[in-house]
Amino acid sequence: MLRFEIKKIWSRPVNKAALLLLAVIVLTGSALAARDVVYYKADGSKISGFFAARRLRSEKNEWKGYVTEDVLKKMVKENQKACAQAESEDGALIARQGLSDLREWINTGLSGEGGYDYYLCDRIPEQEAASLYEKRLALLREEFAGQGYSQKEKEYLTRQYEKFGAPLYYGYADGWKALLDSQYLPTLMTITIVIIGFLVSGVFSCEFQLGADSVFFSSNYGRNRAIHAKIMAGFLVMTVVYWAAMLLFSLLVLGLLGFQGAGLMIQTNDHNWSCMYNITYAESWLLTMFGGYVAHLFILLLAQLASAKSRSVVAAVTIPLGLACAPMFLGRVPFLARVMNLFPDMLLRISAFLRDNIIYEIGGKAHGVYELLIPVYLLLALLLMPALYLWYKRSELV
Amino acid sequence: MELRMKNLTKEFGGFTAVDHLSFTMENGVYGLLGVNGAGKTTLMKMLCTLLSPTSGEITCNGQEILGMGADYRRILGYLPQEFGFYPEFTVQDYLSYIAAIKGLRPMVAKRRVRELIEKTGLKKAAKKKMKKLSGGMKRRAGIAQAMLNNPRILVLDEPTAGLDPHERIRFRNLISELAEDRLVLLSTHIVSDVEYIANQILLMRDGRIVLAGEAQELIDSMEEGVWSLYAQKNEVSRLMKKYKVSNLKTGHDGVELRIIAGKKPAQDAVLCDANLEDVFLYYFGEKAGEENAEI
To answer: Is A101 in a helix, a strand, or coil?
Structure first.
């Protein structure tokens, strides 16, 4: 039965075309993500992608290792020396590509209340640069003080920051950064959920649409095992297509830019400097992928439930589109933002939102938004399966 | 095998589709005749557990069919009026899938699919996609799916609708062949279908079975006679208004009419043998419009 349910999905030419479209989007997305890694050659020309990654890897790995106070001092010294020797700003940029990440740590980490200062590292005394870790907590406290957190939420943030393990281990990780810290992955997840929604839209509605419902429901297994097979077919298509798309995208990006850096903390990218989640890139990848999978399960099972109820494919196609995209826009309305942050689409954008430190105080205890959303939506997805079974089982054919 | 309907009623909002119907069926072929909207399809859907009755019950060998669940559906075969299928499946895939949801084990299913493909004359089309089949072939695939589990109860809703005369004859013969040792309920508004193959004919009107019996019993139940007469063309209109006319045949010398009437409608009218079409017209009167009087 399961084989035939899956065959029903793949026998539709339009579904084959949708899968092909997804493959093209994955390939294009990975090429675009790889292109974001750039390297400037000595003559000022720019290269990107695989060849840029190769050059950057070699230069950045010269700084590989624990970034202690001494290393920070050395980096500041070399940065300022390169600045002094360079004939132009572009020349300085080219000369400092290997230490650009560490330079940004200083710019981001020590800019303080005045806001980000791109030239801070170029003029800061070595000793002050060495206080980067020491001042991190105090400066971050200043930063979050005016952001409307409750007392419990502030305590939670402080505890998370205190767990930060200094000194950080540094190395080349541009592949992981391109994969996780860009907008390509959340965009791909949004497209994937819409396409999978399209693929599974007919699982529970095709019998009604085709007029095959009478034969289905009057058969021996029509109100039990055949429904299990439908749920399983939908689940398998969601799971296989999602993981295939994500693994292919990850493998292509990392294959082009390098797998190196999986064990580095995500704070090694200056964009994540104030992130409260003390995790490595590999852990961030797992969290992002698993969270994305939970969102796919929940939204697509909900869409299938709606299509079983409405007996139409429209619900199965529009629900993923609506839930994946609408909260993103509604969340920009200030008074809706806190509510919209609890919508399942947040799980499609974990890597992009980790640095936003979204915290909710529930029952007198503060939680990071993903500590709440992942178990809640996983539980809801698991509950949707029996709900879908019971709903479909009771179908009457007027 | 005994299928008993007790005081069976199905209402949709304010409309009563099946109205306190009580009837018992045993092995044999039952032809259910009625005009459109008589409640035939609703009755059949209830017999196939696709609809639950508003009141009353259906029992199979004494057990309530909705309570029996899968045990009942295991012995049931159903060809619905609107027979839908999976257009991209081949005939073989379609039948194999239906065999799977009917609970046939893979080896048995394989053999049964092969047998029925041969029996229904679909061998050459076995690898063809369902959407490529002609209307007749689709209907044959429909009867094949209904027969896959060798059902003890076979429910066929308008199985010959839309078929050409050759296909209909072929289909009727096929049903007769398959009808042995089982209960077959065949719903139609095509009188000749049931005339040839049904042991018992049930006339359904307004959600009730108004008459049941063998073809001859139904004919004998008519309290009016069937008359044949020739009339001039200008008289036809008057006669049609005054009598139930079951047939008209225009010739060079006038029009030959077949009239159902309690007494001789004209001096030169000749009493003739009634048939099931006359019965249909007699009981359903004006409701038996053109569509319902299909032969």
So the answer is: helix
